[in-house]
Amino acid sequence: MENGANFLAEGFLFTVAASIIIGEQWRSSRSQSKRRDTVDDKLQELSSQVLELTERVGGIENRWGSEIEGLKERSVFWLVPACLNLIMRRNGELTRILERIIWIGMKGGWTNMHNEKWQEEIASIARSASTIEGSKSSSNSQDIQS
């Protein structure tokens, strides 16, 4: 009888321990399953949001693509006259500086050539410079009017 009582006591303890282990395993697997389901749901939600945003960006690019290209083209066209005006202004400044240097040199007697020849050359440069200045001022007035 004593052996039967020990057997029943150990059987009861074994059953309780086994049910605790099985219950803990079931709870743990259920918890991991919930976690996996939550992660899968979040991944699906994020992928759907990425697709939606990609579609929106595509729609915006389609809608505004021609406007952006037009702005790019216009910005280049506005840049070219500004650069040309800057170059022409710089050219005029350099021409005036060169004329002044030559005039100072002639007045100081730095040349061996006849003064008349140099004066003709300077007059020629001045005429070409005034032609450039005249075309620049007319193009500036056209730019202002348009």
- What percentage of residues falls in helices of 4 or more residues? over 70%
Structural class: mainly alpha
Whole-number radius of gyration? Answer: 46 Å
* Global mean pLDDT: 78
The residue ranges in which pLDDT falls below 50 over 5 or more consecutive positions are 140-146
Number of strands: 0
Task: Using the alpha-carbon principal axes, give the shape.
Answer: rod-shaped
Structure description:
With 146 residues, this protein is mostly helical. It has one domain (2-145). The chain is 94% helix and 0% strand. It has two helices and no strands. α1 crosses α2. The longest helix is centred in the middle third of the chain and has 106 residues, at 2-107. It is rod-shaped and about 145 Å long. The chain starts with a helix and ends with a helix. 0% of the residues are buried. Residues 140-146 have low confidence and may be disordered.
Protein topology:
Layout lengths: L1 H106 L7 H31 L1
Helix pairs in contact: 1-2
Question: Would you summarize the structure shown here?
Answer:
This protein is mainly alpha-helical. The chain has one domain. It is 94% helix and 0% strand.
